[in-house]
Amino acid sequence: MPGTTAGTHPTEYAPTDRTVPTRAADRASYDKEVVHAILDEGYVCHLGFVRDGAPVVLPTLYGRVGERLYVHGSTGSRPLRMTGAADPGLEVCLTVTHVDGLVLARSAFHHSINYRSVMVHGIAHEVTDPEERRRALDALVDHVVAGRAADSRPANKKELAATAVIRLDLDEVSAKIRSGGANDEPEDLALPHWAGVVPLRKGYDAPVPNADLASGIGLPDYLAGE
Amino acid sequence: MPGTTAGTHPTEYAPTDRTVPTRAADRASYDKEVVHAILDEGYVCHLGFVRDGAPVVLPTLYGRVGERLYVHGSTGSRPLRMTGAADPGLEVCLTVTHVDGLVLARSAFHHSINYRSVMVHGIAHEVTDPEERRRALDALVDHVVAGRAADSRPANKKELAATAVIRLDLDEVSAKIRSGGANDEPEDLALPHWAGVVPLRKGYDAPVPNADLASGIGLPDYLAGE
Question: What ipTM goes with this model?
Fold first, then answer.
């Protein structure tokens, strides 16, 4: 049975009016493992909220711990201030998108991209519990480079006081995935235009040490593969 | 004089309350050339709008023609329907973000990423003029691969009827840029943690022809460099 297991933990997020697309429904997924994998591959999200009635879309870092996403920022930044000020929390939409390839069709109309995205709707709340704040900040650093939180100086009291952490539960969530080649109309297949996919190259170039790096500090193991 | 030239075309967008950041103001730019360069390097934006009082952030393709951005979609998709239905247009925030590198500091607090982003606030309007729609659709295809619009079958009447195009003028616009190494506190410089930048590798892998590509169609010149 989709969406449930023998136990109490469903394997899928329950679809809602706003997570069921009006079209291309075959690209949507509510599978928790699919959603987690997309979220765990990234570290930059686009956080949407409403300010003075108008939408704002802010690129920012995020981290996942189980069924919770965390975003952090200066206590002086606008969305973080808004979360703290609003008792019921701040209504947000958090979107993570990975582009996998460019899809070139014979017809202009069927051009597309291959991508995997996750959209989370919900109410963001400020995190005040010190232990949860620590775990959230570690997760934010480890999303950028796995294993890095343990190899850096943890935030001190002054830094913690300047940092606001907000939490968004994974509850109203959907993934959207497009993969594969170009889907042209049958009558266009013989047109003299190349069709196919140009895959994005993923990865990193050689790490560049800081100019002020103390001598004798080699590249850590977790960066050796980059 | 910043923001003006001898003529009538200012070289910068005029800052507004919502495009002046509350912090890290040194990262903000209103220079039109800077903004155009960031927009022209990308093809995926995150489009934010308000639906039933709640924010929605949708990843979608965009194209730029001069001081206008274009987004397209099925006439049945939600934001496009909303634009058509609302006479005064749909208030949106369109954000484009390029991640350039991971910034690893000795302190967890100063971890960051190098990025270039553009945020556009404004009212999106549906485009009905056939000639402007054609130019917008060409720009959308050419953003994905420069020169591709001329080497594909243009949209036919049926496809044009199924496609909504919306326009957002570049007026209330800002860029935000972070570059360079880690900015640790002076007292942390001697800590035994590696610090520096891991640059993202940009580019594409070898194009993958569609399984149904007609024989004798070689890779076009504009993809030869990929």
Answer: 0.93
